[in-house]
Structure formats: C-alpha cells, structure tokens
Amino acid sequence: GKCSRVYMGFRNVRGEREGYGVMRGQDGTIYTGQWMASRRGGHGTLFFDGGVFEGQWARGSAEGKGIVHHRNGDIFQGHYKSNKKNGPGVYCWADGAEEAGDYVDGQKHGWHKWRFGQEEWELLYSHGTVIKASLAEGGTSSGSPASETPAVREESLPKKK
C-alpha cells in the first residue's frame, strides 16, 4: 500500500523541519538524522529497500562522505555529490572482492584496482565503461579470459522509485 509521509522531530520557528528528526517517505524509505530548512542536512542515515546509507547530507542530497551497507552484504564507502558517487571510493562485494578508484557523476572513471584473493587487476574506466584491463604487478590470474575480467561485476545501487 501507499505510505504517507510521516515526520517526527524538531522544527524551527517557521515550522520547517530543523535539528534532529525521523521521516518515513512515501516510497517506504526512513531517514533519521539532522535536518536544515526542511531538507536532509548534516549527518543522517537512510534506510531504503536494499540496504542502509549513512553519511553527510546537504540541501536534501547525499554530499560528502558516506557508506552504504547493502542487504546482500556488499559495502560501498566513498564520497558523494548531489546523491551520486563522486571522488574516491571502495566497493567491497560480500564474497571478499574489492575495487577501489575514483567516481565521476556516479560512474567509475580513471584507474581502479580490483582484488580478489591473489588475483589483482588494474582497470581503466571512461565514464563507467572499462576501456583497458590488465593484471596488476605481482597479481596472479585464475586463467579467466579477458571477457571475464572482474569489471563485468555490477555494483548494487539503491533502487530508484
């Protein structure tokens, strides 16, 4: 069923959400944390369908450092700008694989390091697309063909409703 928005928390003299508060959104998300001028601002935690985001907010958007724990066990830790991954970040899959590198506008960009056990790759991205992949110095491959480079692994994303 359709949830209505419910807010419990502090308000300023103008009646805007300000200070600490908890809000359940119409999409079923729950935000608990700081508010400024009725928008998420400061430190806060957002519970969404596939997991939990905890981090910095500004003008209603994820802005600055943040960490996402996905229900499937994956974890992303990095920087955000206007709700998108932006800047350095590390993505860890539940099975132990890990990828570190920069993001631009929510997409992987530039060199990333991917590691799983003894296997280590260096991946070059252009706006989310791998354009070069090579075994890292000292890394060993399980003999997988190039089509199976770790780059094909998808990162979990909060589902947009």
UniProtKB/TrEMBL annotation:
Q: What InterPro entries does the annotation carry?
A: MORN
Q: Which Pfam families match?
A: MORN
Top-level taxonomic group: Eukaryota
Q: Where is the composition biased (Basic and acidic residues)?
A: 151-161
- Determine if Repeat is one of this entry's keywords: yes
- Which organism is this protein's natural source? Alexandrium andersonii
Where is the region Disordered? 136-161
The protein's name is MORN repeat-containing protein 5
Xref: PANTHER family = MORN REPEAT-CONTAINING PROTEIN 1 (PTHR23084:SF263), PHOSPHATIDYLINOSITOL-4-PHOSPHATE 5-KINASE RELATED (PTHR23084)
Asked whether the keyword Signal is assigned, the reply is no
Keywords linked to the UniProt accession: Repeat
